[in-house]
Amino acid sequence: xxxxxxxxxxxxxxxxxxxxxxxxxxxxxxxxxxxxxxxxxxxxxxxxxxxxxxxxxxxxxxxxxxxxxxxxxxxxxxxxxxxxxxxxxxxxxxxxxxxxxxxxxxxxxxxxxxxxxxxxxxxxxxxxxxxxxxxxxxxxxxxxxxxxxxxxxxxxxxxxxxxxxxxxxxxxxxxxxxxxxxxxxxxxx
Length: 189
What we know:
Distance between the termini: 10 Å
Mean pLDDT: 86
Largest sheet: none
Low-confidence stretches: none
Number of helices: 7
């Protein structure tokens, strides 16, 4: 592989990652503006920015997905968050990410994008509650988990359906997914 091709490949990948990060940050900020209609679950959100993480899991190598997640969390916190929202987001995002990656390893014959996304929705809430338990120094926060799990499953299913739609109707995403699945161990420049 010649150097100019490798450089071009790296530039294209970095632009793609940057676009996904920007989309995730914008979706995250817009989601904060949406009032959540359920009084029984204060602070619960739909997690719409996790759609970007799902797309990344299926189109990028692990190192790039982790970079994308870090960048999205940091930028969202800098633009409109606090240290506590960053910590909650960190706990939820990374537990969710690693759970989705683990479930994805089962393969497409055993679990669909919707199942992977639903796992991410539940584990995001678990991660946030674990972080809240550490900050509050009490495990009673975990009593909130059943309510958040129901919301997480529903949101995860909806995001999984949206991801399926994107991969079906956005040609470049379908191409990137196919290319990623065909060459998962190929070292990226």
